[in-house]
Structure formats: structure tokens, C-alpha cells
Amino acid sequence: MSFTLEHKDPGSSARAGLFQTAHGPVHTPIFMPVGTVASVKGVHQRELREEVDPDIILGNTYHLYLRPGMDILEAAGGLHAFMGWDRAILTDSGGYQVYSLSANRKIKEEGVKFKSHIDGSYHVFTPERVMELQRSIGADIIMAFDECTPYPCDYKYAERSMHMTHRWLDRCLEHLEKVPPKYGYGQSFFPIVQGSTYKDLRERSAEYIASKGAVGNAIGGLSVGEPAEEMYAMAGAVCAILPEDKPRYLMGVGTPANILENIALGVDMFDCVMPTRNARNGMLFTSEGTINIKNKKWEADFSPLDPEGRTFVDREYTRAYLRHLFAANEYLGKQIATLHNLGFYLQLVREARQKIAEGTFAAWKDKMVRQMDKRL
Amino acid sequence: MSFTLEHKDPGSSARAGLFQTAHGPVHTPIFMPVGTVASVKGVHQRELREEVDPDIILGNTYHLYLRPGMDILEAAGGLHAFMGWDRAILTDSGGYQVYSLSANRKIKEEGVKFKSHIDGSYHVFTPERVMELQRSIGADIIMAFDECTPYPCDYKYAERSMHMTHRWLDRCLEHLEKVPPKYGYGQSFFPIVQGSTYKDLRERSAEYIASKGAVGNAIGGLSVGEPAEEMYAMAGAVCAILPEDKPRYLMGVGTPANILENIALGVDMFDCVMPTRNARNGMLFTSEGTINIKNKKWEADFSPLDPEGRTFVDREYTRAYLRHLFAANEYLGKQIATLHNLGFYLQLVREARQKIAEGTFAAWKDKMVRQMDKRL
């Protein structure tokens, strides 16, 4: 569990690094495909490994807690064994899902009481409980329990919430000090910076988080509806404070352009449902721009899905065929689009890493951001 | 386009053969996975080829006519190119789908007028039109346009319908004589025996169909609700009349036991949605019996899905994991179950072929039928 900073881009704050986990190395910058409930929707683990090839994927504590539940995950020997994924896994803490439940949860100092979206049953997450859940899941990187504030959020609420997130962080750390590794390997704990879109709060939070000396640090509470410029301003302010020699994880971000811009600000790790969720709605990301494959214009386009793409779906299927699958509501369409988009996201961060190593990231990033914005 | 009878089982009427098509050899007995609308639901073409490994798959003319439509298929150069499948394809004639529409179609001597299940628009299928559709699709084996009678069916209706199916057959043949191959390769035309569950009608129909000297012959109108014993009685009576040196295709059949019993009667080719549709409902076929993977009993069963299975899903996933995917309504569960079931069906017919070659089919069939009937 150590981070090595390998390259720094001369034209931006972008960095390339290597984070070692018990389940292999994570090369940064990295995008983590989201496997909410022990599955990246519509993708076989073998395809994910061989075609998309991420060093790490993400699981959601809230969803895994409800299904399959901790008894089953413990009996299996943790999430890696349960789902058959032997590379690294990061789990979120449930803070974001609890935030999404809005009307169906109550946040107090002790923790959060919420209603299951599945059967309406009541459950309580506290910092200590969430650490135990993440120990049972056995992810390589586990996250602090935090409150993710909505956007917009009034200053007073954001400040109070930030302080509670800090107190929850201390409770997480205290709890983790008392417990040994569950499955014979260490788990890296990342605290989370909050503070909504207020620069002074973000800076105070980043200083508090940095003071904990964790092996990696995260930025939460962004990509919740604020303009991209505010997101970049907050990420930039926080990256300037978080230690340079530790990986920085911006939670829940984002579009391909968002990812490149935040890499330029010094962020190393990303996750987002966008490539997978948008794929299921027929939206493809490519280096030339986005494609809505449902459009009639692709009906008789028998060219490969993406001549630049690296996965087998890019070569083996045509746009016309994929368009047909969406028109006929065939699930294979979602499978193909998902593999394409994940392949594109991972290729993008691999290329970013390459450009950082070559010292040419900044100019490349500007060109890519312009291109990827187009609608094809 | 020729059939070679390679082996005959001494203990039954089972045979092993080889049917040559423009898209490669079809080793019989064979089960054809159903790719209704240019996709075997939830399965990538590459997986189908490499894991399930069928020599031939089936497409549905009715569905392909509605989506993507003949213009697109012709522009693509036929279904093989459109969907990226370079092995053999068989298309049905739409007779069965028209039968399924029941209230939404009108059958006359000229043909069938029906209402699309998608947008309620009206369409007409005649024998000549259906031949043209199958030429545009470009399947290697194309089927006569027939009326599939329901079960039960009164004798008078069955007899009248059979004669109309025979007249439609003649119209198909007359039409095909006039037209050249569309994509530079020949298509094999199979006529269809009808006659409901009446032995004398089935025999008269088989004699009429046999008299046409087609390269292969089919048995339709079974597996529509009649008891298995009636199905076997009809298939047996028909196989005794259809020429021995031509492949026999029993349409829409069936369970693994149905398939083995009909192989014993002299049937060579099968198709059915059962392995794929039941998979999507959580039912797995194995050599030891069937599994309802949704049952709680599999919740903590961390053994491989099917230690005897030949596809990667059998080795790489556990029963507990698959049970979880179904419980959480994750589509990957359907993908896994589908690959497993298709792998099982194809392995079953390959093993049947092997046993026929060895002359030990009959005893093996009896043992397998007993085993596969169990519920695990």
C-alpha cells in the first residue's frame, strides 16, 4: 500500500503514479468502472479484465450491504472471491447513496437512518458500522463515511456538515485502529474532503484531511449538479493543499472532458456511472465526439463502431447493427455500448498517463477536450 | 449443399451426418440457438462462436422483416454480414410467428394478413413474398411458408390446413425456380410436414413433402402444447417416411430430453427458445437435472456453476454469485445463464453425435433422459 509519483507534467499539475495494493498495482491517472452490486452491468468479469483492462473497479457499500448482504460476502471470503475479480477494488462508504435517498433518510451526529430502496426496511449507518461493512467486503481501498451535501447548499449547512464529516472521519480512524485485517491483507483508508462549492470551506477541509496523513485522499461532494467551472475551482483549490505524494481521488466524476481537466489539476483517480449508464441509453463516447446510436442517421452505416477503439466490439460490430439492437430493444446493444464506453474511458486515462510521461499532456488535453465535445 | 449420412446407431433410428452449406459444415445432430432479431439475446457473437460453438444459428423472418427491415439487410449484404456471423444461418418462414399472433392475423389461400406486434401496422405474407424475404436475409437454409396449426386442432381443420400448406409449398418452389441466388451463394430450401397430431395426416403430408426431393425436410406444428408422447409418435411416423439420406429438422423442439428422444427417432436438427428464454428466468439445464438459481438454497453455494460445463461461465462463476445477480436483477445473470444453457445444449448434441458414432447412443440416451429430469 504505497504510492510512487512517477512523472509530473511540465505544463499542468497532472501527475502519473503507481499505487500498490494487495490485489496488484493501480497505474494513475485511473478511471474505475462502477460495479454497483458486484457486477459492472452487462459486462462479464473476463471481458472487463481482457478488453477494458482497468487495474481497479468500484463497488458500492450501500448496495452490497442490501444485496447480497454481509453474511454472504463474508462466507465467500470477501467481494473479490464472491464476484471473481482478482484485481483491486475500491468501495465507497455509502455516503453518496444515503445522500441520493434524500426523503428516505435522517442524518444525525451519530449516523444516518435510512429506508432501503428495495423493501422499505430501516437501517442505520454510522462511521463505525460502515468501516465494519467495508472490512467485510474486503476492498483494497475503503472510504471514510461522509455527508455528501447537495448543490446548491447554503454556507451554514455546508460548514456544519463539513465539521460533522470531519468528526465522522475521526471516528472511522479510531475504529480502524482497533481492528486487524479481516482477510489477511491490508486495506487502504481514504478520508474525504467536503465543503460544497465554498473555497474557504474546501481549503479548511483539505487541511484537516491532509493532517491525517492517510495513504490517499478523496474529494467528495462535487459532480452533484454544479457548473463544471465550480467543480474545477474546488478541485484545484483542494489539490493545492492535499499532499503531493499521495493519490487524490475525485469521487463521481465525470465526462471525458471533466476527467482530463481534473487530471490537469492534479487528480489521480476517478469513478462515474456515466460511461456505463449512458451506454445503456445508447450514447457512445469517442475521441471525435459523442454518438447517439439511436439516431436514424446510423441506420445504414456499416462502418465499424469505432475504428480507434481498442475492444473487440469496436471492430466486430457496425454502427448500423448497434443502432438496430437499440431499436429492437435487444440487451446485446447495451452490452456492446457499455464495453465500448468503458474501453474508451480506460484508453483515455492510459493515454493521459502516456502524455504525462512524455511531458506533452497539457496541449494534448486541450485538443482532446475540444474534440470530445462534438456531437457526431 | 449436400448431406452425408456418416453413422447410424444400431440401437435406435439415430443418425450422425454432415450438411454442407455456403457458410461451413453443419454436423448433425445439431441444436440451433435462436437469434430472433439478429442477436442471440445477451450473447456476443464472439462468445457464441468460441464458447457455445454451434455450426448454425436461427433467425426469424417475421422479426427481421419488421426490424431492421429488408432494405437494411440488403444494404448490409445479408444477415451474416449485418450481424457479423460467418457460419451457417437458417431462417424460419414466419409461419410460427403468424400462428402466435392468433387474434391479430387472417389466414387465406393467398396468404396471411397480420398486424405488427410492434406498431400495429398491417402486413401481408404470401409464399412468394416470404421466399423473397428469405432471399434478402440470405440464410443458408430457408423454410417453406406453412400454416402451423394449434393444439388441439379438429381433424377437418388440420386436413384443410395441411392441403393449403402443400399448395403454399408448391408456390414457394415455383417462385424459387425463377430466381437466381442473391448474394452469390446457394440457399437450401426445406419444405415442412404438417398434419397436427393425426397420424394419417402426418403420413400423407410426409409423403407429399418427400415427393418434392428437397435437400432437407422439416416437421412443423409440434411442440405447440401436445403431450410429449404425441410429439414422439408424430415425429416417429414422419421420420419413417422422409428420405433417410436427407436431414430432418424438427421445428421448435425442445427440452434436452425431447431432443434426445427425437434424435432416437431419426431427427437431425432442432431449434428452441427454451435454453435462452428459461435462462433469462433463472433456470439452468445440467446433465444432473435442472436448477432454479433463484432459490435461496444456492445463496451460499460457492461451487462452480457447473463443473461439467464447457463454457467459461461454468468455471468462472459460482452458483451463489449467479443467484445474487438474479436476486439483484442484474442483467449479467441472464447473460451467464444463457451462455451456460446454450453451452449445455450444444454439448449434449455433440455428445449424442459421438455416441451415435460409437454405436452406444440408445443406452446413453435412456440414462441421460432419466438424469436430466431431476430438479436439483
From TrEMBL, chains A, B:
Molecular-function GO terms, alphabetical: glycosyltransferase activity
Reactions mediated catalytically: 7-aminomethyl-7-carbaguanine + guanosine(34) in tRNA = 7-aminomethyl-7-carbaguanosine(34) in tRNA + guanine
Active site location: 92 (proton acceptor), 271 (nucleophile)
Residues bound to substrate: 92-96, 146, 194, 221
Domain tRNA-guanine(15) transglycosylase-like: 13-373
Top-level taxon: Bacteria
Pfam families the UniProt entry points to: TGT (PF01702)
Pathway membership: tRNA modification; tRNA-queuosine biosynthesis
Gene3D superfamilies per UniProt: Queuine tRNA-ribosyltransferase-like
Functional note: Catalyzes the base-exchange of a guanine (G) residue with the queuine precursor 7-aminomethyl-7-deazaguanine (PreQ1) at position 34 (anticodon wobble position) in tRNAs with GU(N) anticodons (tRNA-Asp, -Asn, -His and -Tyr). Catalysis occurs through a double-displacement mechanism. The nucleophile active site attacks the C1' of nucleotide 34 to detach the guanine base from the RNA, forming a covalent enzyme-RNA intermediate. The proton acceptor active site deprotonates the incoming PreQ1, allowing a nucleophilic attack on the C1' of the ribose to form the product.
Family: Belongs to the queuine tRNA-ribosyltransferase family.
NCBIfam families found in the cross-reference section: Q_tRNA_tgt (TIGR00430), tgt_general (TIGR00449)
Name of protein: Queuine tRNA-ribosyltransferase
Gene designation: tgt
